[in-house]
Amino acid sequence: MSRQTGKVMRVLGRLFRERQIYHRSDGVVRFIKLSMRTQIALAAVLGVALCWVAYSSVNVVFKEQIILAKDKERRSMDTAYRRKLSDAQQAYDEINTLNVIFSQEFDAAISQLENRHETLRAIVNNKRTLDQEIETLSRTLSTIGDPSGNVMPNGNRVMVDAVGREPTPRQSREARISEQALREVMSHEIVTGLENTVLADMRVQTAELSARQMVLMASVEEEVRAKSAEIARILDYTGVNSGYILARANISGDKVQLAEVDFLNGKGGPDISPDNPSGLPSVYYQSANRISQSMQELNVLASALKSVPLSTPVIKPHRKTSQFGLRSDPVNRSRMQQHLGLDIAAAWRSPIVATAPGVVKYAGNRYNGFGNYVEIDHGNGFVTRYAHMDSLKVRTGQKVGLHDVIGYLGNTGRSTGPHCHYEILYQDKQIDPMRFIEAGRYVFES
Fold first, then answer.
1. CA 237, CA 218: separation in Å to the nearest integer?
2. Around 163, how many Cα atoms within 13 Å sit in the side-chain half-sphere?
3. In the Cβ-directed half-sphere of 446, how many Cα atoms lie within 13 Å?
């Protein structure tokens, strides 16, 4: 160790040999003696100073770089934060927009479904009311029936078969209508490119509900049309043209023309060509338009049916003594005459009833052979006449209902025995009453 120390001292001695510094001032020479220790101390101080300057310079340079790096990092973080804040704001705006759209479409969908539901409910209620009225008429007629117990020659089977069976199964038609309605409603309501699952699901469910409503409406429409066809068949069977009744009603629609028809032999009715000015799905619009007009037709036909005299005027056991048409004169048998009514014989003073609701047009004695006579106006062109009664129970201008007693069977006027002469007029022309009575039997038996 001492050898190493001695070696170091010799190296230092060579580097820091003793030196003298001379300084001359005002003719005086002075010198400063620098020993090895002093030189080492000065070198150490100078080294430390140089190191401090170098450290300070490096520190200043690197500190600026650090500050710049920190500032860059801060700006980067601020940019990232602002980007995230912008993305969050954009996401919030999108969600808020979707919420607004969802709320608006939900309200619109609910409003549309409610409107359609109200339309369906009104249609169903209207149809139920008509069904109940027809059912009431059927029950009323069934309590009377045909007291004679005669089997009708033109049986109900002819009229039932004439309506026909559905060529296409109901389920397949409903499936086709549902598919068509769903496809059209989807294309009408769903916006292409919208990727919001909740909104898309809501639109799909709304479209499915709309399709089911259309199927229900189509089902009701079929029932309404079937009921109208059945009533039209009854009216046509009596000899009264149902197309003429519909034409006279001038049923409103997008396009309705009054056809020129003959009330017994002509063919015609409303010519309807619906358009779609509202922009709604055409399947729904066309179905609503058709069912609206079908309901109007059913209302007209049902109203006509209620005013049609379908019952028999004698509700007690009776027999028919003379049919409608050409016959020999019952008083003067030597000649033929046209009989424009139906003669029904029964027990003396059997009740004579109104065969449909109406207003008594005349009640009194007629000297043209009818004797005690009542004439009732039922509306829609229908009038009934009841003759040869023993006494009357109504007066002119009085309202009567179906099966209200208007008098009692007798033998007044030009008559050979107690009976009721019964006539039905439509548009001032006599029609065979048996066809109406048979049609009435069909109403309650079907």
1. 28
2. 20
3. 21
Query: Residues 284, 285, 286, 291: is their CA dihedral positive or negative?
Result: positive
> Which residues make Cβ contacts (< 8 Å) with residue 120, sequence separation at least 6?
213, 216, 217, 220
The pair of three-digit structure tokens given for residue 398, joined into one six-digit string: 């009085």
10 Å Cβ neighbour count for 235?
A: 22
Under 8 Å between Cβ of 216 and 191: no
423-440 residue pLDDT tens: 999 888 999 998 888 888
Tokens linked to 344: 């029904």
Token output for 202: 């809501």
Q: What one-character DSSP code corresponds to residue 191?
A: P
List 422's β-bridge partners, or say none: 342, 386
Instruction: Give the pTM.
Output: 0.60
Alpha carbons 341 and 80: distance in angstroms, whole number: 102
Question: How far is 387 from 421, CA to CA, in rounded Å?
Answer: 5
> Is the pLDDT higher at 342 or at 293?
342
pLDDT digits (tens, 9 = 90+) for 267-295: 333 333 344 444 445 566 677 777 778 88
| CA dist list (Å): 394 to 33, 34, 216 | 166, 163, 48
Rounded CA separation 386/433 (Å) = 12
The encoded tokens of residue 1 equal: 């160790």
Q: Is 251:300 a contact under the CB 8 Å cutoff? A: yes
Give me the DSSP letters along 265-332: T-----------TT-S-HHHHHHHHHHHHHHHHHHHHHHHHHHS--S-SB-SSEEEEE-SEEEE-SSS
Tell me the DSSP string of 361-405: EEEEEETTTTEEEEEEEEETTEEEEEEEEEEE---TT-EE-TT-E
**Which amino acid does the sequence have at 98?**
L
Tokens coding 243:
């197309």
